[in-house]
DUF2267 domain-containing protein (Micromonospora tulbaghiae), 129 residues
Amino acid sequence: MAEPEFYARVSARAGVPVETARALTEATLRTLAERVSGGEADDLSAHVAHELRPLLARARVEDPEVFGYDEFLRRVAERSGATPSDAERGARAVLQALHRVVGPAQFNRALSQLPREIAELAQPTPRPA
């Protein structure tokens, strides 16, 4: 998926303008790269548009940082300049779009390194009836 299409998908899923989706995407991918192993971040980066790959790059640090859901969202909000609710919606949208790009097997390997609450952001939200 090309970079503009990825941002458009995040924008539509999160209900935010494309520029906000860009900031949320960058913040979420950088934070995700900190939370998974360097090898896993490299594996994920191989599936995204060339322009997004540096966001998942780690300075050859194999061990992930250890932090939970609240810190994950705090980092996304701080990096993107978003409100906490926009950061949560944005992170959800980015992870769901990333899942489509990466595919289930590779994505589930990455999710297995995350706390349950962060991994659940990648799950589709039920639509109201």
